[in-house]
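Tokens in:
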């Protein structure tokens, strides 16, 4: 939270006084506070070069198309800086100020709420850009004439009044954009974003009006929408926390989240839209802060907000933005990711968010300078995102200057340690995720989006997660099975997924070490990774080259996709790019296509190209028009075609020696450059990309490694790795043991595929038939797994049973040292109990260890010894409540600690009931319940009883089955006992 006085707020906002209707403003004379704010300062300056390209002299203002005039908010913040730099900005302060004032005047007057006809009033998306314009106007207040001030106030209050009178109804101007009344929606298309927009439309009016009665009415409606944006009934009905004077269980009535705390948009899980919760909160908060109004509590105490933020951390990358597991667009839209993180970090004070914000800030300047230069939202998305990103960057900068000191980020290592975990988000969502300190991995099983994902070292620019990892592209499974294991319940974080596809099977396991294991029955087109390989100076790993290591050396492969493609000089009139394989589902799109002579000059600029097809908005001529902001794209209906092409006619035969292609996000993963004299007969000039082969293992840029332990060649290019093998292991980080790993002897089991990567058994049944008590033969004898195992001359024999089309990840429970005789048996009951049995004719002496604990066991011939390791928790557990979701979520009621402490398996933590005295555990599904057991700390034990529910809404006495189990504590007082463990079996 901000530690700010009203005086400091007014000073920083440049407020010289407050009148009843129009506070007098001048631009805040601020300087960057901290390194992140310093980056934002430079970005705002340099991005002004894009802004100035939007100036339309014919109207004396910045352009209206795609709300480009909203760039004035960034201008206003720049003009308020004490160290404005005209060189960086590419313009002087006087010119920028004149254009900013002229633009505000024009668009304030043309807004429908001020009597104009050009824009405004519509909630989607006019109200968002009104919010930016109003804020810019307030910062430039002293420079605006009286009619413009009046128009700005009409917009401010008029938009709030318009949103208020809609009540919970649809905006007739916004088409299909609606919050679905007060009900919301969560399957397929959340209404979190829509409710957030309804709330933010009210915020400027509340902040800047002098009409107390209107402000009170608008505020009540604002609080309703802001509370319900992140509503989940089962969680909210169990939460009596008071926020802005009302209880969550009374104000929150909508349903906008899946019960696994993830949102869907347009039919897929999309973290970009989940971040709208804090994007809309940030847009609203800055108005309250700069107006000197109290910040509504709901902006920092959003129902379920912490749980939604945990989900984003579970999907986090090293660049601050989350993985987009199911979409190819909204990816690397760095400018659009700033505000949610800045709000969480600098307003809420979240140190994990500060880490993500700092990581993103490190990428922003190199990103800004990458082609096309001076844009904050490259690669994908909508044109309106560019002015929007500038406005939100300006707001983020203001959040930093409004704090006394910026929030200190946690370390990168601490961030990913805290973010680590696994979760299956449910069949509806079709996403199973594993975040570990070393890597991110996931399996998407939703129809139409199916793929496996892997991001070693969380590297946002190494493996392209828009393409499937290992799994063949375009996979359409006929059967799906997926499971997530957690450390608190099972002893280790891991996931496994098996798909029935193309008449065969494909399986994927993820391990706590960041390693992934892919197994299959030999599907065509499988075993590949798509790599990023741009040349973006300043971003680690993006220097246009990937370095691969093999058994016989190393190879540096240059990304010919983004660098000049040279070939033997030849005479040609026609030159074309002929696609072989697109990198994404969006086909091919090119900003600039250049044909180079022997001196490197562009022969194609101004020439007329032709193409196999073209999008109505992105014609072929755009690729040679010399404008870096226009592009060619294949027609939408041709996006699935691999052999699309773009050709240029140079007018007459000339000597050509290469090409230069600047791709949009829809790039060519493989393509060929061809030349022709007559436009009919074509000759290959260059095949892109260049490839190398390796046997059994390959290191990737010192960041990851691929191993085919059962044998199989690996082919690499600067932008891909392909390993056609029935078993592929992916290792995160710079591993120097890849050769030894590739040469090791694998476990075997009839009818099963088994890997022991990093000591974990990843076992796949890639058939429709179950297997029962099949013996897995494990080379070596150093690790023990749960269940019975027998030491043989070749290692351990361990029985396993698996249903058809399923998998298992089994962690090692103990390690064994010593020289036990052949025939020694082990029975590992769980993570804390093991029995050692010596063969009939020899005694056995073994040292068992687990973590820092160890014990030496001496067993006489034919005898058994039981060993127990102290501590907790014991895993795996039959406790249905262990590690499950608990309510209340966030915010917690006063005096209550997190109910999760009662189900975390840790005897050192406990749930303090507080005055409200009620907690709920969600078992995840309706399940048979035989007993509920509670363990308490010392102290007076209050009266308590158990309730149960199938839907989380209606509770009654506990029966023989339930999904939600509630503990109700009566009359708890400070000093009374706290609940250490709630066990449901």
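Residues out:
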């Amino acid at each position: 939270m901000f530690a700010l006085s009203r005086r400091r707020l007014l000073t920083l906002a440049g407020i010289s006084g407050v009148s009843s209707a129009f506070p007098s403003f001048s631009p805040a004379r601020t300087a960057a506070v901290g390194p992140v704010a310093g980056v934002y300062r430079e970005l705002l300056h340099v991005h002004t070069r894009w802004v100035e390209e939007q100036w339309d002299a014919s109207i004396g203002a910045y352009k209206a198309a795609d709300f480009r005039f909203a760039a004035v908010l960034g201008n206003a913040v720049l003009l308020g800086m004490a160290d404005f730099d005209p060189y960086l900005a590419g313009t002087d302060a006087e010119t920028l100020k004149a254009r900013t004032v002229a633009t505000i005047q024009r668009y304030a007057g043309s807004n429908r709420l001020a009597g104009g006809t050009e824009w405004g009033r519509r909630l989607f998306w006019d109200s968002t850009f009104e919010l930016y314009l109003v804020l810019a106007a307030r910062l430039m207040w002293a420079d605006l004439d009286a009619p413009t001030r009046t128009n700005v106030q009409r917009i401010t209050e008029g938009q709030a009044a318009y949103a208020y009178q809609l009540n919970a109804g649809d905006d007739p101007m916004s088409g299909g954009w609606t919050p679905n009344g007060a009900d919301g929606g969560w399957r397929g298309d959340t209404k979190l974003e829509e409710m957030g927009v309804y709330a933010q439309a009210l915020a400027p009016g509340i902040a800047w009006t002098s009409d107390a009665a209107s402000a009170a009415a608008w505020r009540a409606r604002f609080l309703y929408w802001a509370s319900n944006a992140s509503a989940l009934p089962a969680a909210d009905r169990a939460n009596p926390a008071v926020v802005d004077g009302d209880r969550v269980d009374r104000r929150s009535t909508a349903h906008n989240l899946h019960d696994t705390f993830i949102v869907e948009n347009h039919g897929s899980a999309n973290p970009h839209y989940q971040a709208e919760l804090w994007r809309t909160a940030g847009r609203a908060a800055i108005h309250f802060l700069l107006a000197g109004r109290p910040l509504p509590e709901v902006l920092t105490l959003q129902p379920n907000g912490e749980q939604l933020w945990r989900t984003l951390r579970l999907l986090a990358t090293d660049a601050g933005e989350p993985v987009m597991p199911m979409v190819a667009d909204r990816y690397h839209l760095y400018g659009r990711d700033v505000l949610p993180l800045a709000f969480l970090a600098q307003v809420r004070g979240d140190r994990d968010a500060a880490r993500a914000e700092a990581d993103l800030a490190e990428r922003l300047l190199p990103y800004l300078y990458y082609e096309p230069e001076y844009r904050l939202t490259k690669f994908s998305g909508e044109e309106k995102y560019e002015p929007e990103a500038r406005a939100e960057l300006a707001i983020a900068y203001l959040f930093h200057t409004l704090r006394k000191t910026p929030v200190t980020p946690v370390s990168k290592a601490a961030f990913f340690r805290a973010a680590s975990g696994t979760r299956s988000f449910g069949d509806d969502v079709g996403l199973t995720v594993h975040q570990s300190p070393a890597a991110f991995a996931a399996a998407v099983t939703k129809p139409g989006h199916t793929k496996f994902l892997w991001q070693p070292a969380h590297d946002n620019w190494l493996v392209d997660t828009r393409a499937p990892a290992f799994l063949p592209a375009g996979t359409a499974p006929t059967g799906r099975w997926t499971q997530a294991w957690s450390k608190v319940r099972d002893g280790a974080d891991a996931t496994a997924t098996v798909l029935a596809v193309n008449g065969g099977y494909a399986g994927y396991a993820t391990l706590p070490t960041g390693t992934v294991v892919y197994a299959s029955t030999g599907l065509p087109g499988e075993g590949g990774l798509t790599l990023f390989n741009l040349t973006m100076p300043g971003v680690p790993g993006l220097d246009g080259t990937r370095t691969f290591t093999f058994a016989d050396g190393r190879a540096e492969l240059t990304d010919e996709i983004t660098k000049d493609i040279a070939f033997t000089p030849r005479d040609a009139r026609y030159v074309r790019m002929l696609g072989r394989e697109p990198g994404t589902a969006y086909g091919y799109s090119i900003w600039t296509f250049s044909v180079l002579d022997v001196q490197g000059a562009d022969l194609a600029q101004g020439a007329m190209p032709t193409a196999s097809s073209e999008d109505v908005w992105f014609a072929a001529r755009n690729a040679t028009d010399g404008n870096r902001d226009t592009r060619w794209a294949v027609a939408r209906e041709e996006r699935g075609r691999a052999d699309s092409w773009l050709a240029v006619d140079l007018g007459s035969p000339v000597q050509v020696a290469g090409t230069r292609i600047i791709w949009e996000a829809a790039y060519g993963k493989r393509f060929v450059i061809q030349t022709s004299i007559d436009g009919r007969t074509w000759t290959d000039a260059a095949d892109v990309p260049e490839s190398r082969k390796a046997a059994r293992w390959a290191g990737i840029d010192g960041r990851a490694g691929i191993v085919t332990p059962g044998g199989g060649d690996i082919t690499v290019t600067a932008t891909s790795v392909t390993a056609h093998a029935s078993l592929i292991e992916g290792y995160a980080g710079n591993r120097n043991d890849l050769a030894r790993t590739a040469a090791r002897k694998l476990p075997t089991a009839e009818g099963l595929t088994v890997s022991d990567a990093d000591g974990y058994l990843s076992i796949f049944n890639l058939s429709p038939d179950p297997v029962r008590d099949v013996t897995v033969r494990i080379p070596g004898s150093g690790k023990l797994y749960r269940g019975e195992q027998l030491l043989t001359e070749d290692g351990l024999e361990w029985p396993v049973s698996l249903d058809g089309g399923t998998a298992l990840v089994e962690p090692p429970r103990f390690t064994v040292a010593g020289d036990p005789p052949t025939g020694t048996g082990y029975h590992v009951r769980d993570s804390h109990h093991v029995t050692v049995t010596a063969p009939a004719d020899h005694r056995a002496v073994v040292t068992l260890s687990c973590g820092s604990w160890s014990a030496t066991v001496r067993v006489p011939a034919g005898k058994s010894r039981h060993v127990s390791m102290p501590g907790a928790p014991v895993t795996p557990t039959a406790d249905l409540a262990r590690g499950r979701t608990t309510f209340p979520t966030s915010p917690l009621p006063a005096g209550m600690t997190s109910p999760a402490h009662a189900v975390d398996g840790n005897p050192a933590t406990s749930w303090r009931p507080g005055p409200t005295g009620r907690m709920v555990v969600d078992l995840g599904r309706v399940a048979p319940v035989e007993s509920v057991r509670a363990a308490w700390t010392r102290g007076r034990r209050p009266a308590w009883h158990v309730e149960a529910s199938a839907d989380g809404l209606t509770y009654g006495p506990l029966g023989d089955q339930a999904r939600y189990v509630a503990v109700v504590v009566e009359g708890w007082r400070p000093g009374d006992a706290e609940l250490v463990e709630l066990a449901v079996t």
